[in-house]
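Practice problem: predict the structure.
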Amino acid sequence: MSNGLVHVIDDDEAMRQSLEFLLDTAGYAARTYESAPQFLQHLKTLEPGCILTDVRMPEMSGLDLVRRLKAEGVSLPVIVLTGHGDVPLAVEAMKAGVKDFLEKPFNDEVLLAAVAAALDSNEEAQRQEAERQRFETMLASLSPREKDVLHGVVAGKPNKVIAMELGISPRTVEVYRANVMTKTGAGSLSDLVRMALLARF
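Answer:
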C-alpha cells in the first residue's frame, strides 16, 4: 500500500465523507477540502500523493484547478470525478494533463484502482526526477571538450565524424569517450545515451 496522501476536493459534504471513508477503509490517508481555493491555500505545504477532485464546483471548477496546478508547477497526479453530462469537460481535463477521470456513480473498486495507479505513477515520477538530477550533476562535471564529444555520441555520429568536426584525432575522441563513461558511471553506450536524454543534455 502506498503511503501517499489522497487530497479529496468536492463541494458536496456527503460525497467528501463517503470518499474519505472509502479511502480510509482501503488503507489510504485522505484529507478533504470543500473547494479548490481552500485546497490551493495549502499548496506551499502540500504533502505528496494524488488529487481527487470533482469537476463541477461553484468557486473554481476541477478543470480550472488542473490548469492552475500546472501553472504553479505542481506535478501531483489528478483524478477528476464527473457527473454524467460532464464527460466533454472530463475529456478537456485529460487534455490538460489529468491522470484519469471517473463518471459518477462510480464503482468503489474502480476508484481505488485509479488512486493506486495515480500514487504509483507519482512515485515513479519522483524516482525519475531524482535520477535526472543525479545525471545532470554527473554531466555538469564533464569538461567542455568531453561535452562536445558526448553531443556527437548522443547524435549517433561515429568517432571519425566527431573527430573531424572537432578538429581532433579519432584516437583523442576515444579517450574523451572513455573519460565520459568513467565520470558518468555509464555501463554501456545505451546507458550513456539514456542518461543524456533523461538529463535533457
